[in-house]
TrEMBL record:
Species of provenance: Aeromonas cavernicola
Pfam families xrefs: GAF_2
Domain GAF as annotated: residue spans: 46-138
Sample GO molecular function, one term: L-methionine-(R)-S-oxide reductase activity
GO CC list: cytosol
Protein name per Swiss-Prot or TrEMBL: Free methionine-(R)-sulfoxide reductase
InterPro entries given in the database record: GAF, GAF-like_dom_sf, Phosphatase_reg/MetRdx
Family: Belongs to the free Met sulfoxide reductase family.
């Protein structure tokens, strides 16, 4: 058992209970961003971007004001959409084309969200700590998004 497995097991229980019975996507994302901000240590921004045409549009989040729109293919978020997979960046300053919405952010993880097989948006989490997100975090947060997807 990994050291973070109990944490993510408990987080997943909370996510299921929080989202159960709510049909509205924005309401779900708003409360989920609040829960993740409350529970995840060493993060300074957590939120969602929703895919509309060829842009990611800011959705519910917790943290400092953020970029309203990110073109698909730009920055970590836009690259995750093009690649269709999670991107875990240990040092955002080394990521070619990184879009700095908050200069305090040093690490980032971005996870696409799918509905009916198509990407509809993504979860974006920033940390002031370099190397903040490891494989255990990636797997735990990907499972969190699978729970969300199962309730869409």
């Amino acid at each position: 058992m990994s050291e973070k497995q109990p944490f993510y097991h408990y987080l997943h229980q909370q996510v299921r209970a929080l989202l159960d019975g709510e049909a509205d996507l924005i309401a779900k994302l708003a409360n989920l961003s609040a829960l993740l901000k409350q529970e995840l240590p060493s993060i300074n921004w957590v939120g969602f971007y929703l895919l509309k045409d060829d842009e990611l549009v800011l959705g519910p989040f917790q943290g400092k004001p953020a970029c309203f729109r990110i073109p698909v293919g730009r920055g970590v978020c836009g690259s995750a959409i093009v690649q269709g997979k999670t991107l875990r960046i240990n040092d955002v300053h080394q990521f070619d084309g990184h879009i700095a919405c908050d200069s305090a952010s040093n690490a980032e993880i971005v996870i696409p969200i799918r509905h009916s097989g198509k990407i509809i948006g993504l979860l974006d989490i920033d940390s002031p700590n370099f190397n903040r997100f490891d494989l255990q975090d990636q797997l735990g947060l990907e499972e969190t998004m699978l729970i969300l997807e199962s309730m869409l």
